[in-house]
Amino acid sequence: MAAQPESARRWPLDFHLGWMAARALQTFFVVGSLPNAYLAWKSGDSLDLVSSLIMLVAVFAFFHRFATGEIDSQGIHYRRYIFSKNLPWQDIREIQWKGNRLIFVRKDKNILVRRLDFVLNPVTSSIPYFRHRQNLDTQLPPILERIHAFISDSPEIVSVPAQSRWIVRLFMTLTTLLVAIMLMRILLAAF
C-alpha cells in the first residue's frame, strides 16, 4: 500500500484524554444531578427543581464546547459527542491559542455552537505558550505549524491570556470576602 501524500493525510488536532475527561465530567455531573432533580420534582419543591435544572443546563453549556478531531487540507473533522462533522477552513473567523487549548471561532453560528475547544497536549503546548506570551523566541507547537501549512490565508492565530482578567479579579474578590467573613465569625465566636 502506497503512502498517502502529505496534503491528503489527516493530523490529530488534540489530546484525546482531555476530551474524554471533559465528557466524563459532564456525564458525572448530569448523572449526579438527576436524582436530586427527580426528588425535588416528586416532593413538589419547585425552587429546588428549578435550581437543579439550571445547574444541569449550565454544566451542559460549559462542557458542550469541547471537541476532538483531526485536520487536513479540507478543514477540521471533529465530533463533540457521537457524530462526526466537517468544518471547512473558510468558515473559521479566528483561531485562539489559550494555554493548552486551541479554540476555533466559527462564522455565523449561535453562541452555543460557535466555539470549538480542542485540548492540546499540555507537555508540548504549555511551555511554548508561556514563552510566546512573554515575547521570547520559541517554536510553535507542531499542530499550529501544520495549520499554517494547510491553509495559506489562515485566520490569524491569536495567543490570548490563559485566564481573563475579570475572572481573576472576581476570584480574588470572592476569596478575600470569604476570608474576611471567616475571620469575623471566628472572632465573634471567641467573645
What does this molecule look like?
- The chain is α+β, with helices and mostly antiparallel strands and 191 residues long.
- 49% of the residues lie in helices and 19% in strands.
- The strands form 2 sheets. A 4-stranded antiparallel β-sheet has the order 1-2-3-4, with helices on one face. A 4-stranded mixed β-sheet has the order 7-6-5-8.
- Strand 2 and strand 3 form a beta hairpin.
- It contains 5 helices and 8 strands; from the N terminus they run βααββββββααβα.
- It has one domain.
The total domain count is: 1
What integer value in Å does the Rg equal?
22 Å
Mean pLDDT: 79
**N-to-C SSE series?**
EHHEEEEEEHHEH
* Strand order across the largest sheet: 1-2-3-4
Helix count from the secondary structure assignment: 5
Q: Compute the separation of the termini in Å.
A: 83 Å
Query: Tally of extended strands?
Result: 8
